[in-house]
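Summary of Year 1 activities. Much of the first year was spent building the evaluation harness for sequence design. The harness presents a backbone, in tokenized form, and records the residue chosen at every position. We chose the following record to illustrate the format because it has been used consistently in internal testing since the harness was completed.
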């Protein structure tokens, strides 16, 4: 992935370059909320992205104390949600560096485990959310976590949309800085969303307008072009008077769709009107013998559901990308889990990856299903930046302030 130089005008934050960690107890918030089956980690992508921070701290002889949550135990001990399986996953990722485990994240056992740490050693403490104080951002719990360290590092951008003890409360008690992954996320999002090379295009897909109203509303006021795909495009088409048959739509969001189209026509700050690109044709599935066919949006029959955008729409999108300098993508444009409705999402992914490789385009993508779709096409690595965050990435794109990030920026 390309490293992008920081832009002078963007708010700055302390990084690992600004804080002395040698020989110190360094409490690091990481996001080790990884998928697991029967106590085995099934996808180590998140762990691998944490390596730069981990290896740097070990190399600098810090005493590394890792904090993380896993799942939603809601303040009580849940054996299935122990972080213990992450000990091996972390150790393997670091090429065999031993990792110790603390059976609780606060209290006597945690304190003893921390006290026994030597410079260059790594300790993983048990699931933060086994304690109510974490999600309540309780002052007492924040203080207890802070007591483990001399320095605090936040490397969990994906958890920073929540004001919890380990992301916000703890910053009141210790000198702090962003870890390398947090730094990478922030620099990329700041550069490409707040100070993008234009034309700036956003592609928004997915199933529902209702989950992305704030996103669409913010983007339509910022971007030069907005491509709307996925099932949410059906709601826009219906609002414009097209018949969409059995397609997934949200009847109660027709007005929302129209107001987004209205907002697009107005000049806003750096951009003139926002050009909206909606499907002009679709790939649809029929409940009768016809099976899967393609047609213009004016020929969707009562028995059909639109499950992907069609070829002519793909050409529009491709022309749009060819003349864009930045693209931000969230949400698959079709029902990509089921073939052949994955085709447009994969074609767009390949196109963006190609333009990025030729340095014609900066490309940012994020969102749980979006990143899964890119992994399917093995295309993610060619993007300028793939956010590891789902909810936090969306909230950033919605223009919201993320409390965990805010806490780091305050220092600058
Ligand atoms: P992300 O997790 O990246 O934010 P979303 O959760 O918003 O993305 O959307 C992904 C979902 O949208 C997928 O499950 C996909 O099948 C669905 N989807 C996309 N297009 C359609 C469509 N035309 N009809 C039904 N579902 C669709
Ligand atoms: Mg999703």
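For this record, the design step produced the sequence shown next.
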């Amino acid at each position: 992935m390309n490293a992008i130089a920081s832009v002078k005008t963007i708010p700055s934050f302390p990084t690992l370059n600004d804080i002395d960690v040698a020989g110190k107890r360094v409490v690091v918030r990481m996001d080790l909320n990884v998928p697991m089956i029967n106590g085995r980690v099934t996808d180590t992508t998140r762990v691998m992205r944490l390596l730069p921070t981990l290896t740097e701290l070990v190399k600098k002889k810090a005493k590394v104390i890792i904090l993380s949550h896993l799942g939603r135990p809601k303040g009580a001990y849940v054996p299935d949600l122990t972080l213990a399986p992450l000990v091996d996953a972390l150790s393997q990722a670091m090429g065999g560096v031993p990792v110790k485990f603390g059976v609780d994240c606060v209290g006597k056992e945690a304190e003893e485990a921390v006290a026994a740490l030597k410079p260059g050693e790594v300790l993983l403490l048990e699931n933060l959310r086994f304690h109510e104080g974490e999600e309540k951002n309780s002052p007492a719990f924040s203080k207890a976590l802070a007591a483990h360290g001399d320095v605090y590092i936040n490397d969990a951008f994906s958890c920073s949309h929540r004001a919890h003890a380990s992301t916000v409360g703890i910053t009141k008690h210790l000198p702090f800085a962003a870890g390398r992954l947090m730094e990478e996320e922030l620099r990329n999002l700041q550069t490409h969303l707040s100070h993008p090379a234009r034309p700036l295009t956003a592609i928004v897909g997915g199933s529902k307008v209702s989950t992305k109203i704030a996103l669409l509303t913010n983007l339509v006021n910022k971007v030069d072009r907005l491509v709307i795909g996925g099932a949410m495009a059906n709601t826009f088409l219906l609002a414009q008077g097209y018949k969409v048959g059995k397609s997934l739509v949200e009847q109660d969001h027709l007005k929302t769709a129209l107001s987004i189209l209205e907002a697009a026509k107005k000049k806003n700050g750096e951009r003139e009107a926002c050009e909206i690109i909606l499907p002009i044709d679709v790939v649809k599935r029929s409940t009768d013998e016809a099976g899967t066919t393609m047609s213009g949006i004016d020929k969707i029959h009562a028995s059909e559901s639109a499950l992907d955008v069609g070829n002519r729409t793909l050409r529009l999108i491709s022309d749009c990308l060819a003349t864009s300098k930045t693209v931000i993508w969230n949400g698959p444009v079709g029902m990509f889990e089921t073939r052949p409705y994955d085709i447009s999402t994969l074609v767009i992914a390949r196109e963006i990856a190609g333009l990025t490789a030729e340095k014609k385009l900066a490309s940012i993508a994020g969102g749980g299903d979006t990143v899964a779709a890119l992994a399917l096409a093995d295309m993610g690595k060619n993007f300028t930046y793939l956010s590891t965050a789902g909810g936090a990435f969306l909230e950033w794109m919605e223009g919201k302030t993320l409390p965990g990030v805010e806490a780091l920026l305050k220092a600058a």
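DSSP finds 15 helices and 17 strands in the chain. Quantitative recovery figures across the full test set are reported in Table 2.
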